[in-house]
Specification:
The protein is an alpha+beta fold. The chain has a domain at 42-182. 38% of the residues lie in helices and 18% in strands. It contains 14 helices and 13 strands. The chain has helices at 2-30, 54-64, 97-100, 141-151, 182-189, 231-240, 247-254, 260-272, 319-323, 337-345, 347-363, 368-386, 394-402, 418-432; strands at 42-48, 74-81, 84-94, 108-112, 127-131, 159-166, 169-178, 196-198, 220-221, 287-292, 297-302, 405-407, 413-415. The strands form three sheets. Strands 1-2-3-4-5-7-6 form a seven-stranded mixed beta barrel. Strands 9-8-10-11 form a four-stranded antiparallel sheet. A two-stranded antiparallel sheet has the order 12-13. α8 (260-272) crosses α11 (347-363) and α10 (337-345) packs across α11 (347-363). The protein starts with a helix and ends in a 5-residue tail after the last helix.
């Protein structure tokens, strides 16, 4: 009897330990950002400034640091996320075109919860972006773009929608996106010790020289700045430009230092969705590369998709020419040599690119992306209608989901509707692939 009593006590102790471990694991998962980036709901972000002229100060700091990597943050009294408040947080304007050419006061923001008070984090996240959906009447383009990069095994930030209030005034509906920093690296790659480089301002992956000084000013080094070690990047560039090798030797040397699969998939999605503001398209930026210390390879990271679905394309193109954009186009060899080598000069990589483009194009036949559009529409319709600071009218929001609108803010520039675009672009891509629909 006494023996059974001790067994019962031991059982309760072990059960308590198991429940404790399960609870700890669940709590660890909750700190990963899965709550913040739950995109089944519209979150609420409230920013409060005590300064009377906070907007003038935000504007001044933006101008002051426009062309530097050291950004100045405004100290907000509080930032509340879904009812949880944080004090003395950092807030600043962000973006280039989305800042300078957006009309009205709906600018994009970067929020850094631990800028002035250490260890402040919501759901394990210290920094996030509030993007204003510049030049996108539907406010869905960037969300759809990021989701599809991530779905097809590419690297891109998580995202969700948020209603943003400043000093209790509804400022508008924003896309809240994950900041690409050490927290991002730890979550997506399982380590954050390697070098992270931002593809700005002239990060073409061209051979610049033999020393780190040749690359500084062309790339923004985001991590390990004190170490100031650029050898991994220089080695990658040198490997890319070994032109004396056969195709197979080139692949044998490149694959160990670069996850070419993630590059190829990201670039195919850029092409299909006509995200012209990207490395393999018309303007070579909006990417990061991260040296993963566990694999010894660089990873390609995509971000910023508000121009996707042909929201912007060069003025010399007609809309029809944009919709029929060549699937193997890599802009030019001088400014995007890596994309040119992998897609146009190496048959093995080209075959991989073609196979993925075929898979991606066919995936839309089942209506999956149309379901995504419908889901997002139902989610954001009311917040969009309430948004008095948005660039476009409610009628333009509704219309551009289906059909082309002519943007009065940009000389009546034709912006295709999401559904109409997907139908026509998919058909053009299938024709280029030699597939009869």
């Amino acid at each position: 009897m006494q023996y059974q009593h001790y067994n019962l006590i031991l059982t309760y102790i072990l059960l308590g330990l198991v429940l404790s471990v399960v609870s700890s694991d669940a709590q660890a998962q909750r700190k990963s950002g899965d709550i913040l980036f739950d995109d089944s709901i519209v979150h609420i972000v409230r920013i409060r400034f005590d300064q009377q002229a906070f907007w003038d100060s935000l504007t001044y700091y933006k101008q002051l640091t426009e062309h530097t990597t050291d950004k100045v943050y405004m100290q907000a009294a509080t930032v509340a996320i879904d009812g949880k408040s944080y004090y003395s947080t950092g807030v600043r304007f962000k973006g280039s075109s989305s800042y300078h050419y957006s009309t009205g006061k709906k600018k994009s923001f970067k929020v850094k919860l631990d800028k002035f008070v250490r260890c402040q984090a919501y759901d394990g996240i210290t920094t996030f972006n509030l993007n204003n959906s510049f030049r996108d009447p539907t406010m869905m383009r960037e969300k759809l773009y990021l989701d599809y990069v991530r779905k097809y095994e590419g690297n891109a930030p998580r995202s969700c929608y948020a209603k943003v209030f400043i000093n209790d005034e509804y400022w508008g509906l924003y896309l809240l996106t994950e900041d690409i920093n050490k927290s991002y690296l730890g979550y997506h790659f399982g380590n954050k010790d390697g070098n992270l480089y931002k593809g700005e301002p002239m990060a073409y992956l061209t051979r610049e020289g033999r020393t780190k000084g040749d690359y500084k000013g062309k790339y923004e080094k985001q991590t390990n700045k004190k170490d100031d070690d650029w050898r991994d990047l220089i080695n990658l560039v040198n490997t890319i430009h070994r032109q004396d090798n056969t195709e197979m030797m080139f692949k044998t040397q490149l694959d160990p230092v670069l996850n070419t699969k993630s590059c190829i998939r990201a670039w195919a999605i850029n092409n299909f969705l006509l995200n012209m503001d990207s490395y393999n398209m018309e303007f070579q930026h909006n990417f990061y590369i991260y040296y993963n210390t566990e694999t010894g390879r660089f990873e390609w990271i995509s971000y910023d998709g508000n121009y996707a679905f042909a929201a912007w394309y060069p003025e010399e193109m007609t809309l029809e020419e944009a919709l029929n954009y060549p699937i193997y186009a890599t802009d030019n060899k001088e400014k995007s040599p890596l994309a040119h080598l992998l897609i146009n000069e190496n048959e093995t990589y080209r075959d991989e690119y073609t196979a993925f483009m075929r898979k991606f194009a066919k995936s839309f036949s089942d209506g999956e992306i149309y379901w995504s559009i419908d889901r997002l529409y139902k989610l954001i319709k009311d917040p969009v209608y309430e948004d008095k600071n948005k660039m476009y009218t409610n009628e333009e929001f509704e219309k551009n989901i289906e059909e082309t609108i002519y943007d009065k803010h940009f000389e009546n520039y034709p912006t295709p509707g999401l559904r109409d675009y997907l139908k026509k672009r998919r058909q053009h891509v299938l024709e280029q692939l030699g597939i009869i629909n």
